[in-house]
Amino acid sequence: MKLAVIVTEFPKTTETFILRDLMVFLEAGVDLRLYHLAPWRTDQILHDFGAEAGRRARHIPLFSPRSLASLATHPLAAARLAGSIALHQGREAKFAAKSLALLPAALRLGQELRDWGADHIHAEFAGHPATAAWIAHRVSGVPYSVSCRAHDIFRSQRLLEQKFADAALVRAVSTYASRFLAEHVPGIRQQDIAVIHSSVDVSAIAPSDPPPPEDGFRILYVGSLQQRKGVDVLLRALAGFDRPDWQLDIVGDGPDRAKLEALSAGLGLEERVHFLGQRPFGEIDGFYRAASVCVAPSIIGPNGRTEGIPNVMIEALAYARPAISTNVSGIPELIRPGETGWLTEPGDVAGLTAALCAVHDAPEAASKLAWQGRALVEREFDLRVNARRQLELFAAAGKGQAPQGARTVTP
Q1: 113, 121 in Cβ contact below 8 A?
Q2: What is the DSSP string of 118-142?
Q3: What are phi and psi of 405, to 5 degrees?
Q4: I need a labelling partner for 280 at 20 to 30 A (CA). Which of 12, 73, 107, 213 fits?
Q5: CA distance 359 to 30
């Protein structure tokens, strides 16, 4: 199979879930091309296991001479697509402007993929990558699919109806997301959407019991430092966590780091809270194994920005580490209270403190839930099973056999 995958940014340290899928595709013999809309991110880490995907990555320049020439090559398609974008996305000027800016480059991409003989185009995220895939499909005839995750569908649904109408396959990473789409996007039913969870390489992670209590209580947060991640809630919860032996490792970086460091100091936590920055994938294993509990205190940020199912919670349970998260989006499909972990309401400082106390005070009970979480990950979040399922659906899409959305919408 000749497969083109479109992403917004590459590399991106926090999007290991995409890299993992790509590596399984390559292992399966897929002839892969990876296209990224933004220039190469020199400030991000390309994890070692994704090196081969990196070698296949190509930037799509928006306004190169070849891209602009495609407007003359496909004048009718360009006019129709521009009109559709203006009609259906025009009330959100910022999104519409970006979609129109993509038009020349995506038209050129369609030509390139047709000349290459691509069998399928897959967009990671329903926003700009799906717009590029949709445009490329319209001029190439190559079937395309889209993965829907979180902010890409929660922030705005404009133009999704048109993009889904032409898609051979719409995939959601959670049942919650599939239900949301069916409720908010005309023309697509929940049964038309393939639910395939983001996944981890279960076979590569040997689970183990957490360190013994006498080694101290080590709390782990892995992820970006931005508002929707709720790290400020975790810090405030720890200000009321009166157990004497805890430490917090924060692995990740982001725009809110300075603000969070100031909050930590203001709460008197600077001796216990360690801001460790971005770390290569090879170092993450050690942090999980040293952890007594892993926390993803996600909230709903501005413009509906929030999580799908945090990959770090899947990883935590794969290591058999107790996990605490929030009742947001698809998270309850993984973190099930009393079964695989603890859920609090987003922004509930006291609730998060109580959950931390529960894990700290009853480590054997917490470990039991974590092992049950490992079993759930093996059943539903196994990378090789889920990535192969995607490939099966991509192949079926070319034969018209994949789950499809409505075909009644016209631009």
Answers
A1: yes
A2: -SEEEEESTTHHHHHHHHHHHHH--
A3: -85, -175
A4: 213
A5: 44
Q: Is the separation of the CB atoms in 126 and 136 below 8 Å?
A: no
What's the farthest any 2 CA atoms get from each other in the chain?
Answer: 71
Considering the domain 202-380 in this protein, what is its CATH number?
A: 3.40.50.2000
Angle between helix 65-73 and helix 75-89 axes, rounded to 10 deg: 100
What's phi and psi for 367, nearest 5 deg? -65, -35
Distance CA 250, CA 224 (A): 9
Per the document, the length of the chain is 411
How far is 68 from 286, CA to CA, in rounded Å?
A: 49
Query: Which CATH fold topology does 2-199+383-397 show?
Result: Rossmann fold (3.40.50)
Contact by Cβ (8 Å): 238, 272: yes
Beta-carbon contacts of 23 under 8 Å, excluding residues fewer than 6 positions away, are 49, 50, 52, 53
Task: Give the dihedral of Cα atoms 180, 326, 348, 319; nearest 10 deg.
Answer: -170
- pLDDT means per 10 residues, the chain with 411 residues, are 97 90 97 97 87 95 92 96 96 94 97 98 98 98 97 94 97 97 97 97 97 96 96 99 97 97 98 96 94 98 85 98 98 98 98 99 98 99 97 89 40 31
Give the model confidence (pLDDT) of 9-56 as tens digits. Answer: 999 988 989 999 999 999 999 999 999 999 999 988 888 888 999 999
Hey, how many other C-beta atoms are within 10 angstroms of the C-beta on 255? 10
Q: Check if the beta carbon of residue 313 is closer than 8 Å to that of residue 336.
A: no
Distance of alpha carbon 68 from the chain centroid: 31
Match 């719409």 to its residue by tokens: 170
8 Å CB contact between 26 and 53: yes
Whole-number Å distance between alpha carbons of 78 and 107? 8
Nearest to 127 by CA among 153, 104, 107: 153
Tokens of 104: 């020349």
Best CA proximity match to 399, nearest among 1, 30, 126: 1
Residues of the chain with CATH 3.40.50.2000: 2-199+383-397, 202-380
SS3 assignment, position 48: helix
Torsion, CA 69, CA 74, CA 31, CA 20, rounded to 10: 90
Count Cα atoms within 13 angstroms, Cβ side, for 58.
14
CA distances from 298 to 104, 308, 336, 351 (A): 37, 10, 15, 13
**Residue 76, phi then psi, degrees to nearest 5:** -70, -45
